Amino acid sequence: MNLPDYLTKIEPELAKVIAAFAEAVKQIDQVIRTAETTSAGSFNTSGDEQLKLDILSDRIVFAELEKSGVVSVAASEEQSEEKVLTKGGPFSAAFDPLDGSSLVDVNLAVGTIFGIWPGAGFIGKSGKEMLAAGYAIYGPRTTFTVAVDTNPVEFTLQQDGTFKMTIEKLEIGEGKMFAPGNLRACHENKEYLSLLDFWAENGYQLRYSGGMVPDIHQILVKGKGVFSYPGSESCPPKLRLLYECAPLSFVIEKAGGASSDLTQSVLEKKVEELDQRSVVCVGSKDEVDRFEKFLTV
Ligand code: FDP
Question: Measured in angstroms, how far is the CA atom of residue 24 from the centroid of ligand 1?
């Protein structure tokens, strides 16, 4: 099955937003393969240095969302403010155009993340209100994963520019694989250190690339495992609720996994500001429970 066939099963206006992201992904794929990986000489609101690729990818996504004609407001991790695109459009879309861009020059996999909400704007809304979310990975293959009402599905970009369904049902069970982010926090966060000891001493397989999207996608494809990114006083959590944590938690929970910010599912957490950070742990339910038990003192 190709992406257009899959989209016929989704509410038509919502399908237009997903199709817009897929179109943007095709263009970003080309840009990543050929454009320079140098700095643009600017910084985003989070203080991350912007690459020319970040800025190009950002423009591509905004242009495709505007063309869709159904997105009232869009917010990007690369911009400090949301943009009004189509007045009266039924949806809002938040995205990180190129997540993990510090990995581009070393040729590791990077991604594009998106979440689609009803109405105009994001403040005061929570992830559980999302209508759909997904991401692309630019690696040895370019894949596009999307979740709407049920289990997420994976498509792979073909040479002719079409997206062919490659996994029709992503589902998460239990299993021993861990992707622990922000290890710098361990010197202060001894509870996190104890959890890492637990995973290491119990024969868990370490699989961590440093890119949030591939590090989470592996949990969906292998059907097991955990990704964690807590913080400590001098190494606070840096992952963004709106652009990263909420959309990826939506996909994980649709696959039967769990998410936590240490007090609740990430999807329960309300967006208070566009650049809001969150502790995040996603993956197999037992592992997310374990994360909460070890780190809640
Ligand atoms: P990056 O800074 O390279 O853009 O979202 C940011 C992110 O990558 C995630 O993809 C990744 O999981 C995380 O940062 C890794 O951050 P640190 O290496 O700084 O802990």
Answer: 22
